[in-house]
Every structure is written in C-alpha cells, then in structure tokens.
Amino acid sequence: MKSLTSCYMFFYGILFLSSVFSCAIMGDPKLKLLKEFNMSDKDLTIKIYLVPPNATNSSFIQIKRIWNNKEEVIENFENYNQIDSAYFIGKDSLRLFLSDVDHNNRVKIDTVVDVLKKAW
To answer: Which of these, 19, 31, 12, lies nearest to 55 by C-alpha position?
Structure first.
C-alpha cells in the first residue's frame, strides 16, 4: 500500500513539474492585433487585440492605448472573439461591432460605443 501511495505521489510530482516547465518555456500566449488607430493630433495609438484562450479563460477582445510610451488596457470584452467593424464617430467615440462565434457556429453580434471615454 505504501509503495502504491509513493507511486501516485511520484506521478503527480512529475505532472506538476511538467506543467510548470511548459508554462515557463511557452510563456504567455501572443496577442493578435486586429485593428490599430493612430491619432497623431493627440500622440495616441489605440490597438484592438484578440487575446487567445488559455486554461481558465476563453478568447476575448482587448482594447489598449499607447500614450507617452506607456501601454495600458482600456477595456476587455470577454464575451466576444471577433471584431466586425470599428470606426470613429467624431474625435472621442469609437464604435465597435463585435461578435462571438461559439463552437456550434452560432453568432452573437453587439455594438459598443464610447469606448474611448476611459482613454482620455
């Protein structure tokens, strides 16, 4: 009985170490740039990314701003994995048409406006 317990402990130890080393080697998953807007009058860049899924989260859309050489997340849209359209309304509002295609190929479409209020 004791050797069986030792065998299980050894197996789980190997499993744990392999998961730790695979995360260290692989690193964070790469973001996929979907759209980029350069606003030269404000020295500001808005980037829209698709963040790939991992063990705990499904993929989602992330909006970042780059200003004064600093990059920060403005907003995450966790229920979406595709951007259909994005354009400015005036100088301060970004309209996004986001959708989510699930594993059954069902599509959910939504519109998001005024994302950039947090960016200023």
So the answer is: 19
Q: Write the pLDDT tens digit of every residue in 21-61.
A: 544 444 456 889 999 988 877 788 889 999 998 878 888 99
What is the end-to-end Cα distance of the chain in Å, rounded? Answer: 65
Number of structural domains (the chain) is: 2
Specify the pTM.
Answer: 0.66
The rounded distance, in Å, linking the Cα atoms of 91 and 59 is 29
Question: Do the Cβ atoms of 113 and 93 come closer than 8 Å?
Answer: yes
Tokens for 72?
A: 């920060």
Q: Do both 3 and 47 map to the same domain?
A: no
List the domain range (segments joined by +) for residue 26. Answer: 1-30
